Every structure is written in structure tokens, then in C-alpha cells.
Backbone:
């Protein structure tokens, strides 16, 4: 655990120190966004936060490769995830600067998923009628779709200062907790790609958040959203797609369904927002990728919540889905449900306090 804590700390430190440099680079290169009608910010803000995250990840990997335990995580999968992450970050950086069309971005996302496949990062089974081993072609297709869905889910939820950064940090914490505890409780190898990259993602987000929280000095942009989405999906695939589900079940680490359901519960808020946006736009006869001002965070703002309170509430909602799922794998279900109820109750209290404060100030 100490080596993973060091890994997260290094990623946080590197990202915190590199981000101001990247901010200056982005402004000089013209990679910034002017306020739009649907935006909640009011000043010109640079993008390219993903470039700072990538640099922090690369430096962290160079350092931790020499650690005794974490160093064992380096292999074919790790190489593939790093290469795919590098490609998707470059694609996102170009989009942040030149506003690429949706088709180009989708093609690039599929290509990044293809890089993962070349290095063996692939979903191998699904919990259907017990354990269904997938034919290679079907597993590859599901892998590409899953990677693209997670990437775009993170991109869709990136609408408030610090929102996507904090949500991804919570998601990474949930993934890391599950993968590490699974290794500790069941005797699996603790040195694996899921634990390594989720620790790095958690650290990157912690280091980036001081620059990105309201009022944001820099946005992560598509370079950051797509990078984080790819890293989370890669961690989920290496965790849930390549663990022997039978051995998990036999050792009472949770139901057979839990490992494959974990990504969807941990990423519940981004995925819910993505699905709602697509359904809403298609029903209105618009493109599912046409931007609007009806995301979850917009609706919370319209209810009278402040920018920061809305962000914190969505953090709590993410934790309310993610942490109980992890707890349910290693503790009685009633404890997980109690934790979920407690987290959601706190979020409701925060919302009511913020709304009451606004009413009082208005009076």
C-alpha cells in the first residue's frame, strides 16, 4: 500500500507543479475557450489540462518503475495503456485547439481502443449463464464500445469547474479500493495495471483540482476528459475482464456479477448524464451530440444551488454509487446500503442549506 500511496503522491505533485506551465503554453498556443451561452464561466480560460495530466503520468511511471512492488506492474498491458493514453491525449489536445468534428474524434477513440487490443487489454468474459467466455472478435468489439462509452461519459460530465476532475478521482478511488482489496483478501497479485493506473489517476486529479476548482484557472479540455476516460476504462477492463470470476465467487468476494457491474456503478453519474442527454436530444429531433444546457449540473444550478455546492453534491452522488459497491464486495450488504443512504442524506442536507441561504439573502 505504501508504494501505491507514493505513486499517487508523486502524480499529484507532478500535476500540481506542471499545470501552471501548461496553462501558459495553452494561452500562447490559442488553446482556450471563450464563454458561450450554455457555459457557466464568464472569462477566457485555457484548456490543455490533459497535457499536464499526461506529463505527470509519464514522469510518475518513470519513477515508480524502480519500486519493488509497483515495478512488477510494468508489462505488456501497461505499455499498451500508456501508448493508447498518449494517442488519445494528442487527439484531445488537437481538438482543444482546432475543434475537431465528432466523426474524427470517434474514429480516434476507436483507434485508441484498438491500441489497447493490440497489447492484450480486452474483455474476455461476461457473467451470462454463469461465466460466458467471449469469442475474440466479440470481446474486441465490446472492448472498443466500452472504451468509447466511458470516454464520452467523462467528456459529457465535464461542465462545471472541478466537476469531472473530482468525479474521476472518486471513481479511481473506488476502482483502486476494489482491485487492491481483492488482491489482499483473495491472494491475487497486488502488482497489477488496475491498481497502478487508478492510483496515478487519483493522484493526477488531486494535483489538478486546485487549479480547476471554481473559479477554474484552467480546464482539462477534451485532452484531459478523453485521457481520464481511457485510463478508467482500461483499468476496468484489466480488472473485470481478466480476473477469474469463478475464483472470486468461490472465495466469497462477492457475486459473479459484481466485477463486471463495478464500472457501471462507479461511473454511474457520468453514464446517467450521457444516456439522459442522448435520449433528450434524440426525442427533440436533434443530434445526440449537439450541446445543450440540460445536463445534471445545469438542473442542479437551476434549482438554486451555487456552483460549488452543485459540484460537491455531484461528488457525493458519485461516492454514493461507487463506495457502497466496493463495500458490498467485502462486507455485508446492509453496511453498503447504510453507507449509501448516509452519503445521499448528506447531499440532500447540503442542497437544502444552500437553497435556504439563497432565500434568506434574497429577502
Residues:
Amino acid at each position: 500500500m505504501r508504494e501505491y500511496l507514493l505513486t499517487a503522491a508523486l502524480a499529484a505533485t507532478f500535476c500540481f507543479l506542471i499545470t501552471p506551465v501548461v496553462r501558459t503554453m495553452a494561452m500562447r498556443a490559442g488553446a482556450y475557450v471563450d464563454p458561450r451561452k450554455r457555459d457557466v464561466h464568464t472569462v477566457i480560460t485555457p484548456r490543455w489540462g490533459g497535457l499536464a495530466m499526461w506529463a505527470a503520468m509519464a514522469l510518475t511511471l518513470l519513477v515508480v518503475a524502480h519500486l519493488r512492488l509497483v515495478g512488477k506492474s510494468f508489462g505488456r498491458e501497461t505499455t499498451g495503456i500508456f501508448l493508447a493514453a498518449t494517442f488519445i491525449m494528442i487527439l484531445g489536445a488537437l481538438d482543444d485547439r482546432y475543434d475537431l468534428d465528432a466523426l474524427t474524434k470517434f474514429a480516434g477513440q476507436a483507434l485508441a481502443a484498438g491500441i489497447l487490443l493490440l497489447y492484450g487489454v480486452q474483455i474476455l468474459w461476461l457473467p451470462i449463464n454463469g461465466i460466458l467466455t467471449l469469442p475474440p472478435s466479440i470481446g474486441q468489439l465490446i472492448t472498443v464500445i466500452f472504451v468509447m462509452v466511458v470516454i464520452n461519459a467523462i467528456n459529457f460530465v465535464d461542465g462545471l469547474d472541478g466537476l469531472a476532475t473530482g468525479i474521476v478521482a472518486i471513481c479511481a478511488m473506488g476502482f483502486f479500493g476494489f482491485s487492491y482489496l481483492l488482491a489482499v483478501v483473495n491472494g491475487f497479485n497486488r502488482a497489477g495495471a488496475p491498481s497502478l493506473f487508478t492510483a496515478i489517476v487519483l493522484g493526477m486529479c488531486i494535483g489538478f483540482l486546485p487549479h480547476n476548482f471554481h473559479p477554474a484557472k484552467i480546464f482539462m479540455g477534451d485532452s484531459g476528459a478523453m485521457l481520464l476516460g481511457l485510463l478508467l476504462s482500461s483499468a476496468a477492463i484489466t480488472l473485470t475482464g481478466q480476473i477469474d470470476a469463478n475464483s472470486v465467487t468461490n472465495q466469497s468476494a462477492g457475486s459473479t456479477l459484481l466485477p463486471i457491474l463495478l464500472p457501471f456503478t462507479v461511473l454511474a453519474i457520468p453514464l446517467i448524464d450521457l444516456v439522459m442527454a442522448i435520449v433528450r436530444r434524440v426525442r427533440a429531433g436533434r443530434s445526440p451530440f449537439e450541446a445543450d444546457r440540460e445536463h445534471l449540473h445545469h438542473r442542479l444550478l437551476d434549482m438554486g444551488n451555487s456552483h460549488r455546492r452543485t459540484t460537491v453534491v455531484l461528488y457525493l452522488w458519485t461516492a454514493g454509487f461507487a463506495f457502497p459497491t466496493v463495500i458490498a464486495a467485502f462486507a455485508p450488504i446492509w453496511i453498503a446500503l447504510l453507507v449509501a443512504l448516509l452519503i445521499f442524506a448528506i447531499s440532500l442536507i447540503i442542497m437544502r442549506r444552500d437553497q435556504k441561504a439563497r432565500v434568506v439573502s434574497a429577502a
Observations:
- The chain is about 70% helix and 0% strand.
- Confidence is low (pLDDT under 50) at residues 248-255.
- The first strand starts at residue 32 and ends at 33.
- The longest helix spans residues 333-362.
